[in-house]
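Q: Please design a sequence for this.
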């Protein structure tokens, strides 16, 4: 009976992790202040919304493989995010579609 309960618990845990992969990736605390030189070293950032699995709004800054959670209400961070929109990771589009649009644009330029 103990073995059955442990196997059931393990199965449910694995199912939860498969269905909600971001559940343990949420920021649980945010900093309301940010040191001066941090923003210059940010490699990429993500915006965490307070819906679904994560219950806290945050900006996740990735610096040298580490993640820092800061408040999205910090004026300095808002201004920095507007300038650095290119550092938000994007989903890759299909390569063929990209090539077709480039070819079409080149043909338009020639005409």
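A: Design:
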């Amino acid at each position: 009976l103990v073995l059955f309960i442990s196997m059931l618990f393990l199965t449910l845990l694995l199912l939860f992790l498969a269905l909600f992969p971001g559940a343990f990736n949420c920021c649980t605390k945010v900093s309301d202040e940010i040191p001066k030189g941090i923003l210059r070293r940010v490699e990429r950032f993500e915006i965490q919304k307070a819906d679904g699995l994560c219950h806290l709004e945050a900006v996740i800054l990735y610096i040298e493989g580490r993640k820092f959670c800061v408040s999205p209400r910090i004026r300095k961070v808002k201004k920095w995010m507007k300038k650095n929109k290119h550092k938000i990771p994007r989903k890759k589009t299909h390569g063929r579609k990209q090539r077709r649009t480039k070819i079409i644009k080149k043909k338009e330029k020639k005409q």
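Q: Thanks. Anything notable?
A: Residues 105 and 111 are 10 Å apart (CA to CA). The chain has three helices and three strands.
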